[in-house]
Specification:
The structure is a single chain. By secondary structure, this protein is mainly α. It folds into 2 domains: 163 residues, no CATH class; 89 residues, no CATH class. It is globular. The two termini are 26 Å apart. Bound molecules: fe (ii) ion.
């Protein structure tokens, strides 16, 4: 029986207390580690709190997904550990560079893995578990999921899970941030870039990417509407139908669509997204 199968088939009652203990210790470490970044400035504090909250929410989303996908036992705990550690690099990033934009600072997943290695956080995990955790973290923020064929088969599953769990909560973070920004741009203190005020435009490159179901680079985003389109493009990258359902049920797609300008392009975009969602839900894929 492959390890993947063991992760799927293990009964919840068979959770290994050792794995539970590892998760408990990592949670305690995470709380202490992230608290150590507080106190430098209001800006850093607010953004550290944002990522602390995001991490807890991603853990919850991950638990939701593993229960839906049928991953139990140690596999579910491993998935939660990935969620807990996936953004560890964000705290050093905001401290060092005062931004969450990787393009302007550093690849935060790479930085996170460096921190994990330096501190030996995974030293009591098996070689396979370490590989699964690190690959999932390294892949969680990449434009597209790209795994080398020589990696163990389990890596793909956990990388897909964290990419979805992360995105589900990023919708919440970005939409909340957007609402705060629109309310009072001068008081906005979060390291989420909205680029510029709404100029009523969408860049043709971003519109075409969305209509052709292609991914886009962050550097191609030129205005606040492009950013909304990016969030719709993310829907193409959602791996599990249950993730897509959750994003829709929470009203994230409706909100983003409602904020688009009334242009011909955006009418077409709304239609394209609607068709895509209906097809995915109908196919349950
Ligand atoms: Fe994240």
């Amino acid at each position: 029986m492959s390890v993947l199968c063991i992760y799927f088939c293990a009964d919840l009652s068979n959770i290994c207390p050792i794995m539970q203990d590892k998760l408990k210790k990592l949670r305690e470490w995470f709380n202490d580690f992230t608290a150590s970044f507080l106190g430098e400035s209001d800006f850093v504090d607010e953004n550290v709190a944002l990522k602390q909250c995001h991490t807890m929410k991603v853990c919850q989303e991950m638990n939701f997904l593993t229960s839906k996908v049928g991953i139990k036992g140690d596999g579910a705990i491993l998935a939660e550990i990935i969620a807990l550690l996936h953004d560890v690099g964000r705290f050093e990033q905001i401290k060092r560079y005062k931004t969450f934009e990787d393009a302007k600072s550093i690849d935060h997943s790479k930085l996170g893995i460096e921190i994990i290695d330096e501190l030996g956080l995974l030293s009591d995990f098996s070689a396979l578990e370490q590989k699964i955790i690190k690959v999932a973290i390294a892949q969680h923020n990449k434009k597209e999921l790209q795994l080398s064929p020589d990696l163990p088969e389990e890596c793909l599953l956990f990388a897909r899970l964290i990419r979805d769990a992360d995105k589900i909560d990023i919708y919440r973070v970005v939409i909340n941030g957007y609402k705060l920004y629109m309310k009072d741009p001068d008081k906005f203190n979060l390291a989420i870039s909205f680029k510029s005020q709404d100029d009523g435009k969408c860049s043709p490159k971003v519109v075409n990417a969305l209509l052709n179901k292609e991914s886009i680079n962050y550097t191609d985003l030129k205005n606040i509407n492009d950013r909304k389109l990016l969030q719709l493009i993310w829907l193409y990258d959602i791996n599990f139908t249950d993730s897509l359902k959750r994003i829709i049920e929470r009203g994230y797609v409706d909100f983003i669509v409602s904020q688009l300008p009334e242009t011909k392009d955006c009418v077409l975009i709304k239609k394209t997204i609607n068709i895509y969602i209906n097809q995915r839900l109908a196919n349950n894929a």
